[in-house]
Amino acid sequence: MAVRFYVDADCLGLAKILADLRDDVTYPGDPGGMIRKRSRPRCVITTPDTADSVWIPRVAALGWGIITRDRAIQRKPAELAAVHTHGAKMFAITTTEKLSTWHLLEIVTINWRRMEALLDDPGPFIYAITRTGARKVL
Fold this sequence. Notes:
By secondary structure, the chain is α/β, with parallel strands linked by helices. The chain has one domain. 35% of the residues lie in helices and 22% in strands. The chain has helices spanning 12-21, 52-61, 77-86, 101-118, and strands at 5-7, 25-26, 33-35, 38-40, 65-68, 89-93, 125-130, 133-136. The strands form two sheets. The protein has a six-stranded mixed β-sheet with strand order 2-1-5-6-7-8, with helices on both faces. The longest helix has 18 residues, at 101-118. It is globular, with a radius of gyration of 14 Å. 33% of the residues are buried.
């Protein structure tokens, strides 16, 4: 299976867990690897400190869904413009709680099937995801 999801640097602990379990998930700096006898290539975003204005267009051009912890994304003009301009498909964990990696994983797994289905929809979009589900905010 090809990569379908990119996990932002703002939740690298979550990213590494997901990438260890799934060959369709990558993150900035991911060296790639073998997951259940399937090879995942090195991530095209090579370092976690890559600016949003650089990685959002690259990830969106590949059609990957973006998982981020940036709960204020819809209030950041430059990031919103990048999502709009490049047709990004974003899932933002928006709860205001301070979350451990375990709790981030819980939120993502609760929403995983819906997120997979939404990847077939054209971008741009942003869904706010929480323990209680997903809500379209853009």
